[in-house]
Each structure stands twice: as C-alpha cells, then as structure tokens.
Amino acid sequence: MKKTFTINISGTVFHIDDDAYERLNNYISQINRHFGNDTEAREIVEDIESRISELFQERVKDGNEVISLEHVDEIIRIMGMPESFDDAKEGEEPQIKIPHSSHRKLYRDPDERVLGGVCSGMGAYFNYDPIIIRLIFVLLVFLGAGFSLIIYLILWIVVPKASNSAQRLEMRGEEVNINNISKNIKEEIQDVKENYEKFRTNSRGRDRVDHAGNIFSSVFGIIVKILAVIIGIALVFAGISAIIALVTSLFITNEFIGISPLGQGIPHYLDLFVSGNTLFWFWIGLGLTIGIPLIMLAYLGAKLIFRFKSRNGAVGLTALGLWVIGIILLIFMLVRGFSDFKSGSTSTRQEQITTKSDTLYLKLGADEFNDYLDSNLNFDKLRIASINGKQFLLNKPTLDIVKSETSDFSMVIKTKARGHDLDKAQNNAREINYKFTLQDSLITFQPWYMLPEKSVWRNQQIEITLKVPENKTIYLSENIVKIIHDIKNTSDTWDGEMGGKYWTMKPEGLELVNKKPASVGIPKKK
Amino acid sequence: MNLENTKAQMRKGILEYCILLNLSKKPSYASDIIAEMKVAQMIVVEGTLYPLLTRLKNDGYLSYRWEESLQGPPRKYYELTPEGKLFLNELDMAWGELVEAINQLKINNL
C-alpha cells in the first residue's frame, strides 16, 4: 500500500505516489534552480512542465493509473538533467543563479516523537538535538511554569505533523536563523539591482514596463517581508507576555498579589463571594475569552516570522470554537452567580434580658480582628480578615433600640441572607452565629460577626433590636456608636452623638438624661 | 575528447538551424518538433529544446499562438516570423557554404 498525492501539472490532474512525487518535485526544483527566476526562465519551465504533463498523459491513458517512480525516472531520462540543457549563447557570460532555497518549515516530527513530536519537530527546526528541547520543557514544568504544558498542547494542536516525505524534507530544509533571514533579504535586494540593471540597459518599451513592474514588486516584496518579520516578533512578544500575565493573574495570584492586572488581589478573595464551582468555571471561561485571542495573536506572529503552513483553517476554527465556549461559560457562570442571590430569608430569635438593675449598660467588645483586617477591602460594613492564611468574611451588626411592649428588657436578633432558593437562603441565614454577653447589667456586643469557614457571601446581615421598657434607662458607651443604626429619640440626636450618654425610655421615646443617676455606676469586670 | 561528445557538439551547433527548418513549412508545436528532431537524431534529451525555443522567440525569430487541442490543455504552436525567415535564409547560405567547404576539404585531402 502506498500513499498518493493529487497533483496538477499545467492544468492536468494526476495521481502520483509519495516517492515519485518527491523525485519529481526535486527534479522540477532542479530545473527551476538551473534557469533562475526571471520571466524567460518561468516560460521555459512552464513549457517543460506542460511537456512532462503530456508525457504522463501518454503513460496513464485511462486516467486512473497512478504515476509511479518508474514513470518519473523515465520522464527524467527523456527530458534530461538540466546540466545538459545548457544553452549558453556564444559571447555571453553564463548566468550564475543563486539557488533558491526551499525554506525550512515547522512540523511535528512523528519519527522521533515521544508524545506529539513537538520537541523533535522544534529540534529539527532549530537544529538542536530534540533531547535538549525536551529537557528545557521538562525543566520549565518542574520550575512551576505550568504554562509550558499549555504551550506544548497548543503547539501540538497548531503545528502540522510531517506526514509525508515531502513535508519531512521541508522540516529539515535550509536552516532558519538570523543569517538566513538576512541572506534572503540580501538576495531579494540583489534581484532588485539586477532588475534595475536590465531596466536601464533594455531598450524595448514593453520590457521596460515589465522590468519596472519587477523592480516595483521586488522592492515592495522586501519591505513587506521585513515588516512581516518585525510585526511578527512584536506580536509573538506581546502575545506571550500577555498570556503569561493572564496565567499569572488567574492561577497564581495568591503568591504574587499585586502583579495581577485584575485589581489588587481581588481574584484571590473571590472565593469568599462566589461558590467554588462557579468560580472555577468562571475562571476557565475568562481564561478562554481573553487567552484565545492572545494565543492567536502570538500564533499569527509566529506565522509571520517562520511562514509555516497551518492546516487549512483548523486552527482558526478551533480557536473560534474555544472562544465562543469561553464566552458562553462566562455568561452562564455570571447568571449562575447572580441566581445565588435570588431568594431571601430571615431568621429571628428573641432573647430575654434578665437584670435586677433599671439601667442597662451597652458597650462594644474588644475588636479582636483589628490586626487581621485586610486594608485593601472596604465594602461598606464588609471586611475580610486573614487568619493563618485563611480568609474570613466579617460584617458589622446594626443595633436599634425600641420601646418594649412588656416590662422587661429583651433582645431580638434578626439574621438575613440570600440564596439560590428559599431553603438555601434559610440555611445561610441560620448559619450566622452572633453572640453577645450579659453580665449583671452590662451587655457586651461583638463588633463583628464572622461567617463560618467555607461559606460565601450571600448578603448576610444581622439586625439587633433591643427592646427597652418604659421608664428604664440605658447607657450607650462611646464605642457602641459604631454599630447603632438610626435610633429614634425625642431630641432627634444623631447616632454619632448618642454615645457616652444615658437615655431613658419615655412613652414618647428615648429621652436624654442630663445627669447621671447617683445610685448606679458601670459595674467592674470580675 | 571522445566521439560521442564531439558528435553532440556538432549537433548542438546546428540545432537552431534544424528547428527553423522544421518550422519553415508550417507552424508546429513543441512535441511535434521534438518528435522530428528525435527521428533526425538531433537531440538526445528533450529538455534541450525548450530553452532554445524560448530564446528564438525572445530574439524575434519565432512567435507562437495557443491552439485548442482535443486531448488536454491548449498547445503552443510556434511559427517563423518574417525576421525568422530572413535568419533562416542566411543560415541556409551558411550551411551551403559549410557543406561546400567540408567537401572541398575532403577532396583536397583524398
């Protein structure tokens, strides 16, 4: 069994064996090289090709037969090797033509492969032992640069496999390096010079126009090629650095807060706000949406520099597909994230305050989280505390004081939360555990309540309402004003001014007591 | 210097003349010219012919036109230009002189 190609020689289609194709291709490029690259040469080569096509047609009459190596050898015997064509006009110097190099192209090498043949292909391309390239890759992976794995996968997808011998030849074609690129450009400049010389010495009008066209197209070609290389390098550089930045910000922000372009370390807190699963897919979606265009940018750059062929549109289509998936994922996860706030629930508990005193002293407990608070985040009442490397959400309760219907002090603690459905919202509301302590007539409130570990922000809130019976007095300490919220009083005193004062519940509401009752004082802690 | 090589040199010198002769009666396309040149043992490999045809054309001695063919793509039919006809006449004379000169040489050295 043999692999065949379909080729078109001057307008006729032939099937040709892999090895025969290789030999024929070599032969024709030898002829090309022999005659050079001007219009006259192209005409000769075209004529020779059409003769070859004719000779093949005679040999494969029914059109189904495949051209074999024997056929090609026979044709080469008939046509002769280009060296025997020599048609040097007398008195004219033989033209020395710079052989036109077949450019090396980047392929995956299936013969030397370990995995996808990416490293072996790169080895062939850059003329290094593939083992060195492999070592670099493995080292990069161990050095924590996980993106080298991604790069490998991308190359695996993007770079075509050298699946026939012609491609294997291209894979090992002339070395691509700075020398060669500059050599190519020099050759082109030489071509321009020659064209210009011809232009000057040639007298015939039509040829002059022809040559002027040649010069123009060569100059233009050189400019385009140089520009392509420059733009290519810029694109590769920009693309790869942006990809690295993206990967860093998405996956390793914990270690490098501050590098992240997505706002000071916010990604690193997001798991406090969005449930892990949603977040994971959100990152994947975001990564695809931003990453795919960047990868395509770098790919385009590489294509401009190395001029390798891609499989017909497969890369573009794959990229487009992944990008669309990324966007869908992103939207879907956003919707899912918001739907976690769909339902709201409230849970209420009432506690009796039993005290012999007629005056209650209210104060705020010590702020035990003060040293752990993250100064970066400051959403209204919400704070984040980092304790032993773990992040916790903190929120402030609000305190209101109203008149009691009974003759006793009592406290109502209302917790609110949202969730995907009522059950979840209810759970989220019940989960909040808020404590205060009562000691004789002193109530100490915690300044913060902390959400349990692993729970995420669902707009949890605590509203504390202290019910004060008529004619009983409360003392608001200076620091309690941090949590009190819009307490009604007869003198319309603003919350912030209510601290450090005694207030008595009258039928009309809370009333400021101007002087401290003599009989009571703040009980000392035991 | 071997015999084959010398013969090849001789043939090469008059190949242009032979092609022009071949085209003097009627226009012809490359494969036909090749067939005739092969019969006359003027060429060994076909590739030799194409550069020559192109050069003759570029020098203004030949012109060509495309003609549809029953099998395959259109063919290039070459024909002599007036310039080519003049050139052929001169070559004819030169050839006559050459043959005469050679004959003379042979007679003289018999």
Which SSEs are present, and which pair or pack?
The complex is a heterodimer of chains A (526) and B (110).
Chain A (H helix, E strand, L loop, with lengths): L3 E6 L2 E6 H18 L3 H21 L9 H11 L38 H9 L3 H13 L4 H12 L6 H7 L6 H24 L3 H47 L24 H31 L7 H26 L3 E11 L5 E6 L18 E5 L2 E6 L2 E6 L5 E11 L2 H10 L4 E4 L2 E4 L3 E2 L10 E8 L4 E4 L24 E6 L2 E5 L13
Parallel strand pairs in A: 4-10, 4-13, 7-12
Antiparallel strand pairs in A: 1-2, 3-8, 5-6, 6-11, 8-12, 9-10, 13-14, 14-15
Helix pairs in contact in A: 1-2, 1-3, 4-5, 8-9, 9-10, 10-11
Chain B lengths: L2 H23 L2 E2 H10 L9 H10 L3 E6 L7 E6 L1 H27 L2
Antiparallel strand pairs in B: 1-3, 2-3
Helix pairs in contact in B: 1-4
What this model shows, in words?
The complex is a heterodimer of chains A (526) and B (110). Chain A is of the alpha+beta class and 526 residues long. Chain A has three domains: 4-85, no CATH class; 177-336; 343-513, no CATH class. Helices cover 44% and strands 17% of the residues of chain A. Chain A contains twelve helices and 15 strands. Mean pLDDT of chain A is 76; it is low at 88-101 and 254-267. Chain B is of the alpha+beta class. Chain B has one domain (3-108): Arc Repressor Mutant, subunit A, CATH 1.10.10. Chain B has helices at 3-25, 30-39, 49-58, 82-108, and strands at 28-29, 62-67, 75-80. Chain B has a three-stranded antiparallel sheet with strand order 1-3-2. In chain B, α1 (3-25) crosses α4. The longest helix of chain B has 27 residues, at 82-108. The mean pLDDT of chain B is 86. Chains A and B meet through α2 and α3 of A and α2 and α3 of B.
